[in-house]
């Protein structure tokens, strides 16, 4: 992937997180990415929808490089990995200066009802994230409280993080993310036998 293509995708991801997919125009992307005109944009992408699909793929790759890499770090205890992962989601938002929330959520809310291709792809992204966390929890299943379902707990974690990201973006308040992350880590720990929750 060329550096210019990455530049366009990253500019589009910022705009989608800030304004939503529907409200982000090709002209907005051209201006944010510093392109010379529409012909330059269409040299790289056939349409705005094609751009949206690639933004989604790239954001998932970036999440994989940072967040999911933590979940797969086998030298750490599974529950510790999960706690670090939750903190990393907050850290990513701090790095972005709360200028945007999750492009997954922005794309999902804007496009899922309008475009079946987006809906399917976004559902696949969330399912992949849930499956990764559920797999991690399954590694520690012998330590979890009886009746804890790793998949349901993973789904709750993803929903809480995505919701917190959206709320923090709207309020421009990273402390909200920190608070939800602390509560979420405490909630996860409450499912571990013998763990002390604070």
Provide an overview of this structure.
- This protein is mainly α.
- It has one domain: Tetracycline Repressor, domain 2, CATH 1.10.357.10.
- 73% of the residues lie in helices and 0% in strands.
- The protein contains 9 helices and no strands.
- The longest helix has 24 residues, at 48-71.
Summarize the structure.
The chain has 198 residues and is an all-alpha fold. The chain has helices at residues 3-19, 26-33, 38-44, 48-71, 78-95, 103-111, 116-139, 150-171, 174-189.
Number of helices: 9
Query: What is the count of β-strands?
Result: 0
Distance between the termini: 46 Å
**Main sheet specs:** none
Q: Unreliable runs, pLDDT <50, ≥5 residues?
A: none
Indicate the overall shape: elongated
Beta strand %: under 5%
Helix content: over 70%
How many discrete structural domains?
1
CATH architectural arrangement: Orthogonal Bundle
Walk me through the topology.
Elements: H1 3-19, H2 26-33, H3 38-44, H4 48-71, H5 78-95, H6 103-111, H7 116-139, H8 150-171, H9 174-189
Helix pairs in contact: 1-2, 1-4, 1-6, 4-5, 4-7, 5-7, 5-9, 6-7, 7-8, 8-9
Search tags:
Tetracycline Repressor, domain 2, about 200 residues, elongated, 9 helices
């Amino acid at each position: 992937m060329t550096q210019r293509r990455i530049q366009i995708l990253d500019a589009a991801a910022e705009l989608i997180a800030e304004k939503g997919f529907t409200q982000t125009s090709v002209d907005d992307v051209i201006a944010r990415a510093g392109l010379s005109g529409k012909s330059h944009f269409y040299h790289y992408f056939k349409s705005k929808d094609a751009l949206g699909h690639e933004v989604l793929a790239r954001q998932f790759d970036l999440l994989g490089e940072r967040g999911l890499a933590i979940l797969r770090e086998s030298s750490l205890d599974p529950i510790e990995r999960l706690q670090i992962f939750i903190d990393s989601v907050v850290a990513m938002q701090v790095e972005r200066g709360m200028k945007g929330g999750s492009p997954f959520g922005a794309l999902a809310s804007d496009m899922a009802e309008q475009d079946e291709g987006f809906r399917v792809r976004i559902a696949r992204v969330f399912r992949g994230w849930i499956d990764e966390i559920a797999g991690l929890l399954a590694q520690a299943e012998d330590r979890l409280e009886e009746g804890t379902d790793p998949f349901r707990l993973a789904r709750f974690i993803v929903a809480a993080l995505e919701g917190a990201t959206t709320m923090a973006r709207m309020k421009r308040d990273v402390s909200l993310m920190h608070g939800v992350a602390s509560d979420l880590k405490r909630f996860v720990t409450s499912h571990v036998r013998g763990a002390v929750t604070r």
